Amino acid sequence: MLKEPPRERTKETRAGVTRTIHDACGFKLYMNINFYATEDGGGPSEIFLTVAKKGSMIGGFARTLAVLLSLMFQYGIPWEVIYSKLDKMKFDPMTSEYTSLVDAIAQNMNEIITVVKEKT
């Protein structure tokens, strides 16, 4: 029988940051990152991603990425490790600011997480 590693679930009430990215490689992206409320300025606990084109395949992939990222946070994988794998991931569509939609998500998440860590 497979033993599940420890998972820190989110609380009923949690603090979060919401951001709208108006041009994430041609998509309008809504991002909400919630954080653990701990004395040492808890890290991210979950993320919600919504692409403006509701019901689209890209919207489904964004929601799936959000679930996987949330699980990584809850199982204790440091953001820096995750970010190093997503940052500058390159595939179409691209813009002068982002190398892919995944890069747009990673860059904005990193900015939010860095600001929240600096405030705590």
SSE diagram, text form:
Layout: E1 15-24, E2 27-35, E3 44-51, H1 57-74, H2 79-86, H3 101-119
Antiparallel strand pairs: 1-2, 2-3
Describe this structure in words.
This protein has one domain (15-119). The model has no long low-confidence stretch (mean pLDDT 91). The chain has 120 residues and is α+β, with helices and mostly antiparallel strands. It starts with 14 loop residues before the first strand and ends with a helix. 38% of the residues lie in helices and 22% in strands. It contains three helices and three strands; from the N terminus they run E-E-E-H-H-H. Strands 1-2-3 form a three-stranded antiparallel beta sheet. A hairpin with a 2-residue loop joins strand 1 (15-24) and strand 2.
How many strand elements? Answer: 3
Could you describe the largest sheet, including whether it forms a barrel? 3 strands, antiparallel
Strand share of the residues? Answer: 15-25%
Q: Into how many domains do the coordinates divide?
A: 1
What is the helical fraction, as a range of percent? 25-40%
Low-confidence spans = none
Structure summarized in a few sentences:
The chain is of the alpha+beta class and 120 residues long.
Provide the descriptors you would attach to this structure in a database record.
single chain; 120 residues; alpha+beta; three-stranded antiparallel β-sheet; 3 helices; 22% strand; globular
